[in-house]
């Protein structure tokens, strides 16, 4: 039996909720190899149905889904089972959403792209132990670019409004938006 499988405990149930089908399938296979009993869902509605059917011991929930917010599923899990270890995943690593996720019951919060090793480490971390830092975290330029893109999308792709909210000159923002994303 692997070291990961020994840490999981008797209830190995894991719910994976993500609307990226390819990522979901890869992650499900990887987590099954680590000893979890995986159920998958691709929408908030499917996730809520899976929780009502059998509340898992572990959950990995994407924050932004096609039909709503993954935090709704986190709340439902927390109402039904206090000991579930929940990791929230998102492509938009913002402090405000991290705080909201933890306040309603998430155990940890990871930015995409996160691999199966990072996710299982976060799920199985005990006490005050922090999981090890990622091998290749996003660069500061990439984090800045992601933040600007998120605000730009939230402002319905309006450059002037985005520049105003970011307290940035409009021409500077246009130059940033015209460039490719940093690595």
From TrEMBL:
Protein name: Photosynthetic apparatus regulatory protein RegA
Any one Pfam family match given in the protein's UniProt record, by short name: Response_reg
Cross-referenced SMART domains: REC
Source organism, top-level taxon: Bacteria
Modified positions (4-aspartylphosphate) in chain numbering: 62
Keywords: Activator, DNA-binding, Phosphoprotein, Transcription, Transcription regulation, Two-component regulatory system
Transmembrane segment boundaries: none
GO molecular function, one term: DNA binding
Role: Member of the two-component regulatory system RegB/RegA. Involved in transactivating anaerobic expression of the photosynthetic apparatus. It is a transcriptional regulator that is responsible for activating expression of the puf, puh, and puc operons in response to a decrease in oxygen tension.
Biological-process GO terms, alphabetical: phosphorelay signal transduction system
Domain Response regulatory: 13-127
PROSITE patterns in alphabetical order: RESPONSE_REGULATORY (PS50110)
